[in-house]
Specification:
The protein is of the alpha+beta class and about 180 residues long. About 50% of the residues lie in helices and about 20% in strands.
């Protein structure tokens, strides 16, 4: 995953695909225009400025190299796994409450977290699904404006979540046994 992809990912999480796509296209056009201007500057100012005329072009090429070759997806998943690990006991305590029946979902499949666990999920709610004998619990780490979200999902059978549980997935990464980091599409 490149920096452009990670930029898209954060945009899709925050403002959804409908609004993010034009912004991504505009940012790519602006970046290409800046590269074009730096090439023009380099061509016309080399006589006057010497090696200094090459500097804008070099900066753009370094930025482009970072965008193209830094593996941002593994970095992002690693960060999310560390965030999860720091609060793993609290996540597991909520799962115990769900499995024991002390924390039950409403008709829409959501449950409000107890006071001591409210910081585990955006909006202080979790989604619970118990279909086909499998308990699935989703903790929201971020929620977009219209419909996109990301977070941690517990699966009692330790299999990746199918799309129909909550939504279609852009990314599913196993971070621990029974636990997945998921980003909706």
């Amino acid at each position: 995953m490149t920096a452009i992809d990670i930029f898209e990912w954060r945009l899709y999480e925050t403002i959804t695909g409908i609004l993010a796509t034009p912004l991504i296209i505009i940012s790519q056009i602006v970046f290409l225009f800046l590269i074009f201007l730096s090439v023009l500057y380099m061509v016309f100012e080399t006589k006057n400025d010497g090696w200094g005329a090459i500097l804008p072009f070099l900066v753009n090429m370094i930025v482009l190299s970072v965008i193209m070759y830094v593996p941002f997806r593994p970095i992002r998943v690693s960060i999310e796994a560390r965030v999860f690990e720091a609060k793993k006991n609290d996540f597991e305590n909520v799962i115990l409450l769900v499995e024991s029946g002390e924390l039950m979902p409403d008709q829409s499949g959501t449950a409000v977290l107890p006071e001591q666990f409210k910081d585990l999920s955006h909006g202080q709610t979790i989604s619970i699904n118990t279909s086909h004998g499998v308990i699935s619990v989703f903790f929201y780490s971020s929620v977009g404006v219209l419909d996109n979200f990301s977070g941690y999902m517990y699966r009692s059978n330790d299999t990746p979540p199918p799309g129909e549980l909550i939504g279609d997935w852009y990314l599913i990464e196993r971070i621990k046994p029974f636990w997945y980091y998921c980003v909706s599409a």
